[in-house]
Amino acid sequence: MKIKDIVNRDIVNLTNCEQEPIHIPGSIQPHGFLLGLKPGSLAIDYCSANTAEYISMFHLQLLGNTFESIFGYKAKKLLEDYISNNLMLSSSLLKLTLAGVDFLCTVHNNGTTYILEAEPVSLDSKPLNEVYDQTSQFLAYMHDTHTLKELCQLVTKGTRDITGYDRVMVYRFDKDYNGEVFAESCREDLEPFLGLHYPHTDIPPQARELYMRNLLRLITDINYTPVPIYTLDDSEDKNLDLSLSVLRSTSPIHVQYLHNMGVGATLTISLIYKKRLWGLIACHHYSPKNLSPEVRLAAQLQGHFITSQIDLRQASEEYELARKTNLALESMNSYSLNRDADLQTLVDSSNILQLCNAAGVSITFNGRVYKNGLTPSDEEINQLGSWLSTYSGNSTFTTDKLIDFLPEAKEMCTNTSGIIYHSLDMDSNNCIIWYRPETQTEVKWAGDPTKAIIKDQKGLSPRNSFKLWKELLECISKPWLQPELNAASSYAYNLQRQINLLIISQEEERYRKLSELLRQTNSELENINWISTHDLQEPLRKIQLIASRILGKEEEMSSNVQDSIKRMNASANRMQTLLVDILKYTRLKHTDDSFDNVNLAKLLKEVELDMAEAIAEKNAEINIDELPDVFGIPFLLKQLFSNLIANSIKYVAPGKTPQIKITKEHSLVPFNADDNTLYQVIYVADNGIGFEQHFSQSIFNIFTRLHSSPEYKGSGVGLALCKKIMQNHNGHISASSELGSGTVMSLYFPVKN
Questions:
Q1: How confident is the model at residue 529 (pLDDT cuts 50, 70, 90)?
Q2: Per the domain annotation, does 447 fall within a domain?
């Protein structure tokens, strides 16, 4: 049978310590021995080299044999029962008599192997009742303390009473895994470490990972000699994962670190909170020290007490803070904005600062800054607001160290190290910003954190100086706590809603004033139009009357004078027609007259009857197909078709008989691709002189005339009037034409639902 040891002999130094495989050292500490058993057969596949010191049998005698053949059926049965019933219980210990010696054993499954670690029963171990009494005392701690810090302080004292270590600390990590001694109990002659900080490099990532998996870690003697583990040489690269092992040998880098601190023995208990390594209970002794497994479990229970209370205590502290911020928030939410000036009254309230415990606040609205407390200047606020609007995408932003994001803001950091920013408008720089000033904090480090690694004649090694080193943190504010952030967010949302209502109210007021001004202006224009068109007709009638009388005496005048008077009379007639059309157009507006179903066939007969004289004069032919009823105002529709027919008769080539055809579209159609409404279309087509198609829109503008020839009389108002009538019916009118080929007018009447 061939055997080999599995000791990891890779050279480890500080250049590669973060990659050190500390879970497979291939060796253990000497205060117990280890067996690795194959599942099922319980054959001994791994064995530490120190078994002879405990059971008078060497590893060569054990490897390859079954557990039963070496230790007997009774021991095997106890082990199998333990594996079946208690393996997952970390607080359960297995008591075995092996080769006539009593041992307390821990057993776990690393996935491929059952690992049994045996430690001799200590004669000087504390009585169980004493351990129980000291442990029970912790239940009282939960009722006698109010804050997490008070609880941790009592736990350090209680753990030291149980274990007898020289120093017990609760070590808390920050977000970057830098550590702080949060609570401590130590011998009176020792220098306290309370409040000291340690850099994250002191505990590398893979060590933190093991602390997450194995909640208790013990080193009984820093100066121990590692005991190698042997195994059957039956496969290449064979190894044993000792992540959950109690006896696992320690990284030489960590041993050197503890040597530099002057520590002789340690016990470390992990504190896990929300699946993250929150901290450690770190116990130091300045000489070798071992604990019985029972006492270790009692000490580990203290870690469970703390972790069970972290959430409760922090929640209690946050609740008290939230209660105070909510009172301020409720007070602020009860304040209503009615005008811009109210913003200054709002920011002057002390509650707006208290809701997130800020030192200053500013609100930027419509380019104006309203502020209170310790704030930057107006110009700096505008610049900061503009940058934050871009950086956050008009949303929110929070920091306790602004210069990390805006290095050029160092001059502002005295008053503006920490900010909470909330945009109040997605399209502008309207915003609210709370400010916290710089809090110059003196951090006490156990040694210079920038010298966590030192270089000497031996190469790279852990720092050996733990002399107090002070660092002054500048341009950083007190951190914003979650209840403060919640209150700020809630109020910013409420303020945004109020400002939106204020903007809407201002717009409504502006619209109301404009509407009133427009109404007055329209009324005045209507009066002016009425007066001008009505009063101008009287002098025109006099001109026409006088011209007629003069022409009646034509034998007394020369032909030139008669011609001039006739032209004057014609101009007066045209002006009178124009004034009548203007009067019709200005008086045509959206009427409140009732809409009704209008029979177009009947309406067009009335139009033909009214226009009989003009139709007969030009011998016009009007063909009307079967037409549908439309929903409209009869007298307006009558005026609409009268204007269109009159245009068709008027704008016909000389010597040509006007032909007018009025038809319908047989299916309902939209006006254009973007219109979801369906329309009934009526076509009015003629054989007139037509026009170029690019004038199809402009002809509906008032006073627009495409034909200036004297034989085509008109004011340029008729088609504008038609367009307005169609608009009043929520419809449309369009024209299609070609010069010399007639015109088609399309009338779109919306279908009544």
A1: low
A2: no
Do the Cβ atoms of 222 and 254 come closer than 8 Å?
no
The rounded mean pLDDT for the chain is 80
Tens of pLDDT, residues 368-391: 899 888 888 999 999 899 999 989
| Mean pLDDT (whole number) for 164-175 | 89
Look at strands 459-462 and 453-456 and give their pairing.
antiparallel
Question: Are residues 87 and 151 both part of a single domain?
Answer: no
Only one residue has tokens 């010597």, namely 655
186 and 306 assigned to the same domain: yes
Q: Are residues 245 and 142 in the same domain?
A: yes
Does the residue 537 lie in any domain?
A: no
Residue 559, domain member (yes or no): no
Show the CA angle centred on residue 545, arms to residues 543 and 547, nearest 5°. 65
Residue 356's pLDDT band (cuts 50, 70, 90): confident
In terms of domains, do 140 and 284 share one? yes
Largest CA distance in the chain: 163
- Look at residue 454 in the predicted model and tell me its pLDDT: 46
Total structural domains within the chain: 3
At residue 14 the predicted structure's pLDDT band, cuts being 50, 70 and 90, is very low
pLDDT, residue 316, reads 66
What whole-number distance in Å separates Cα of residue 270 and Cα of residue 304? 9
pLDDT at 125: 56
H or E element in which residue 308 lies: helix 293-333
Q: In the structure encoding, which two tokens stand for residue 563, read together?
A: 């011609």
Q: Which residues in 249-344 belong to E strands, given as ranges?
A: 265-273, 276-285
| Domain interval for residue 168 | 128-222+239-319
Contact present, 475 and 410 (Cβ < 8 Å): yes
Residue after which a domain boundary falls, among 296, 319, 342? 319
Percentage, residues of the chain above pLDDT 70:
79
Please report, for residues 332, 599, 729, the alpha-carbon distance to residue 595 in angstroms, rounded to integers and kept in the order given. 53, 13, 9
Point out the domain boundary residue: 92, 120, 148.
120
| β 33-37/114-120 pair status | antiparallel
* SS3 assignment, position 459: strand
Q: Which residues contact 234 (CB under 8 A, 6 or more apart)?
A: none
**In the sheet where 396-399 sits, what is the strand order?**
368-373, 360-365, 431-436, 418-423, 396-399
Distance CA(747)–CA(734), nearest Å, equals: 7
> For the chain, percent helix, then strand, then coil, each to nearest 5?
40, 25, 35
DSSP 689-738: ----GGGTTGGGSTT--S---TTS---S-HHHHHHHHHHHTT-EEEEEE-
How confident is residue 206, by pLDDT bands cut at 50, 70 and 90?
A: confident
Residue 472 has pLDDT above 50, yes or no: no
Extended beta strands in 92-245, E state: 94-98, 101-109, 114-120, 167-173, 179-186, 197-198, 216-219, 227-232
List the CATH number of the domain containing 704.
3.30.565.10
pTM above threshold 0.70: no
Give the whole-angstrom CA distance, residue 412 versus residue 403: 9
SS (H, E, C) 371-413: EEECCCCHHHHHHHHHHHHHHHCCCEEEECCHHHCCHHHHHHC
CATH of the domain at 85: 3.30.450.20
Using the structure block, give the residue that is written with the tokens 């239940």. Answer: 139
| Assigned domain for 133 exists | yes
